[in-house]
Specification:
single chain, alpha+beta, nine-stranded mixed sheet, five-stranded antiparallel sheet, 17 helices, globular
Length: about 550
C-alpha cells in the first residue's frame, strides 16, 4: 500500500461542496446532489442576457487563438488559483471529478466516488487513461499528485482543501481511499478543481523544480503542452490518445495581451479568435462590430473591495460602513462593468444559493449591506470614528476598467466623506502577487477583487474570513465565526448547511469584512469562425477548448 499522510494545511483560495448524507454516494449521486443554479434565459434590469451555452461546433478546425490578460507565472497545478493559469491548465490537466459547463459535478478521472461512511471517500479510477508521455494512469499517480498538495514545503494554494484529510491511500491498482479526520462536506467537490488534478508521478519528478514552467505537464487532458514562448504565448497540441471525446481543434495558441485595448483590437481584427474576461469598456464595440458574438453566462462572481489591512482607519467597522454608504455602485456598474452587472450588498451570488430552501434564501439576503448611497450618514460615521482626514491606500491596475474604475469610485467615495484615499498602480502581471505575497500587500489597505466561486456553494466565499484562511489578508479573527464555518463544513445535509451559511452571511455583512459592490456575469467573445466554448465560469476547471470548433 502507498499512503500519503496529510500534514498541517496552509490555505486555499476557494470554497466548498453541496452533498446529502448517504451511506454510499456514486459519482452519479454527486451530480444529483450538486445541481447548480438555473441556466440561461435570465436577464437583469440592464437588459443583458445570460446564455446557457454557445452553439455547438459543426466540425473540426486546424487551430484557434485565444487572448489572456497575463502570462501565467507557472502552470503547476498546485499553484493554479487564478484566471490565466486555470484558463490554460484546465485543457491539459484533469481532476478526479469534473465541474461541468452547467456547474454541476460529474465523473472525471474517477468514474465513481463512494462515501461508505462520513469520514471516508473512495475514488475508483478509469482504466486505460494515458498520460501525455504515453504511460497509463494508476492509483500511485493519484496518491502522489494529491500528496503534493498537502506537503507544506510546496506551499500549495489549495492546501486548505486538505485540512481535514488524514491520509490518501492506494487501496487497489485503480482505487484511492481518502480518510478524513472529521466529516467534510466540502472536500469531494473540490476534487473537480485544480485541487484534484492528477499528473504522472514520473513526469513531475523528472521535471523537478522546473515543473510547471518548462516542458511537459504530463497530465491526461485533451491537449498537451507545446511551445511556451515566454512573454508571448503558450501553444497546446491535441492529444490523440485522450480517453474521452477528442478535441475539435488540432492546436490552441494562448496569446498574452496585457493591454485591454490590444486584446479588443486583436479580437476585432481576427488576430485572436476569442477570449474570456473581456474588457468591460469593449462590450459595446464587440457587440456592434459584426466580427463575432459577445455572450454572457453564469459567473458565480462578485466584485468587491478586498480589505487587506485593518491596522489603519479600516480597522473601525464604522469607517468600512461609511465607505460602503458613500460608494456609487450603480455608477460603477454602468461604467466599470459596461452595464452588464447588478448592484449587490451580498458577498455571495444569488446563484450559489439556488438549491437552498426558499425561506433560507430569503433569510440569507434580508438585511444585508445597504446598496443605496447615503453620504450624510457616511459622514456622520467617519466623524463618530474620528477618522476625518485619515489616509488609506487603494491598489489599482490597468488590467481593465472594472479594476481601475472601481478604484477611482472608492477614491471618490472617500473624498465625499473626508477620507484621503491614495491610488497605487500595479502592473497587470504583478496584480496576481497581491493574492500570494504579503510583501506585495505592504502599505495597501484595500484592492478591487472579482471573487469567483470554484464550486456552487456559499461557503466557498464565506470560509474566506475564518481565522488564517488564504484570502483573510486583513487577519480578521472571531471564534464564533470560525465555529460556524467548522459546523457548516461538517454538515452534509444541504438544507441544514444552508441555515448555518445564512448566519455566516449575516456576520460577514455586519462586519463588512469586504465591501460588496456588484454581481458580474462571465463574458466570452467568439468570432464568426469558431463556436462551442462554454459561457459559464466552468472554463476554470473544465476542458473547454476541446469543445471549440468550426462555426460553419
Amino acid at each position: 500500500m502507498t499512503t500519503t499522510p496529510a500534514r498541517p494545511a496552509g490555505a486555499s483560495p476557494r470554497g466548498r461542496l453541496t452533498l446529502a448524507t448517504t451511506a454510499l454516494l456514486s459519482a452519479a449521486a454527486l451530480v444529483a446532489a450538486c445541481s447548480g443554479p438555473p441556466r440561461g434565459g435570465s436577464s437583469d434590469q440592464a437588459g443583458f442576457q445570460l446564455s446557457a451555452s454557445t452553439p455547438p461546433a459543426k466540425g473540426e478546425i486546424q487551430s484557434f487563438t485565444w487572448a489572456t490578460y497575463a502570462e501565467p507565472p507557472t502552470l503547476d497545478y498546485i499553484q493554479a488559483f487564478d484566471y490565466p493559469q486555470n484558463t490554460i491548465l484546465a485543457n491539459v490537466c484533469e481532476s478526479l471529478m469534473r465541474w461541468t459547463p452547467q456547474l454541476t459535478l460529474a465523473p472525471g478521472l474517477a468514474e465513481k466516488a463512494s462515501n461508505p461512511d462520513p469520514t471516508t471517500w473512495v475514488y475508483d479510477l478509469r482504466s486505460g487513461v494515458h498520460f501525455h508521455d504515453g504511460t497509463v494512469m494508476t492509483a500511485d499517480d493519484v496518491v502522489y499528485s494529491l500528496g503534493r498538495q498537502t506537503n507544506p514545503d510546496n506551499a500549495s494554494a489549495w492546501a486548505q482543501v486538505f485540512q481535514n484529510v488524514d491520509s490518501v491511500t492506494k487501496t487497489g491498482p485503480l482505487q484511492v481511499t481518502v480518510k478524513l479526520k472529521q466529516p467534510d462536506s466540502q472536500f469531494p467537490q473540490y476534487m473537480a478543481t485544480a485541487a484534484g488534478v492528477v499528473a504522472a508521478k514520473a513526469g513531475v519528478e523528472a521535471a523537478g523544480k522546473d515543473y510547471g514552467t518548462t516542458g511537459s505537464l504530463d497530465c491526461t487532458g485533451p491537449f498537451r503542452m507545446g511551445t511556451w514562448a515566454k512573454g508571448q504565448s503558450i501553444e497546446l497540441q491535441r492529444f490523440d490518445d485522450y480517453w474521452g471525446t477528442k478535441a475539435k481543434s488540432g492546436k490552441v495558441v494562448f496569446s498574452f495581451l496585457t493591454d485591454p485595448s490590444a486584446r479588443t483590437n486583436a479580437m476585432l481584427t481576427g488576430d485572436v479568435d476569442g477570449g474570456y474576461l473581456i474588457p468591460t469598456e469593449s462590450y459595446d464595440r464587440l457587440k456592434k462590430s459584426g466580427a463575432g458574438t459577445l455572450y454572457f453566462g453564469e459567473g458565480l462572481s462578485t466584485v468587491n473591495v478586498n480589505v487587506t489591512s485593518m491596522q489603519g482607519a479600516l480597522g473601525d467597522v464604522r469607517v468600512r460602513k461609511a465607505l460602503s454608504l458613500a460608494l456609487d455602485r450603480s455608477g460603477f456598474v454602468r461604467t466599470g462593468l459596461g452595464g452588464s452587472g447588478t448592484v449587490t450588498g451580498s458577498l455571495t451570488t444569488k446563484a450559489v444559493w439556488a438549491t437552498a430552501p426558499d425561506d433560507l434564501r430569503k433569510t440569507a439576503f434580508d438585511g444585508l449591506t445597504p446598496t443605496a448611497q447615503d453620504v450624510e450618514q457616511a459622514k456622520s460615521l467617519v466623524k463618530e470614528a474620528g477618522a476625518g482626514g485619515k489616509t488609506l491606500v487603494m491598489a489599482t491596475s490597468t488590467i481593465g476598467q472594472d479594476v481601475s474604475l472601481l478604484a477611482t469610485a472608492v477614491q471618490a467615495a472617500g473624498a465625499r466623506i473626508g477620507l484621503n484615499i491614495q491610488l497605487k498602480t500595479i502592473a497587470p502581471n504583478a496584480f496576481t502577487a497581491l493574492f500570494t505575497d504579503a510583501k506585495a500587500r505592504e502599505g495597501i489597505d484595500m484592492f478591487p477583487e472579482t471573487y469567483y466561486d470554484s464550486i456552487t456553494d456559499p461557503l466557498d466565499l464565506l470560509a474566506t474570513f475564518k481565522t488564517g484562511a488564504y484570502q483573510n489578508f486583513a487577519g480578521y479573527g472571531d471564534k464564533a465565526y470560525d465555529d460556524l464555518v467548522d459546523k457548516a463544513t461538517a454538515e452534509y445535509d444541504p438544507a441544514k448547511r444552508a441555515a448555518i451559511e445564512a448566519q455566516l452571511q449575516k456576520a460577514a455583512s455586519e462586519q463588512l469584512l469586504w465591501i460588496p459592490v456588484a454581481e458580474w456575469p462571465t463574458a466570452v467573445f467568439l468570432n464568426k469562425r469558431i463556436t462551442g466554448a462554454p459561457t459559464t465560469i466552468s472554463y476554470m476547471y473544465y476542458p473547454w477548448a476541446a469543445d471549440v470548433g468550426a462555426a460553419l
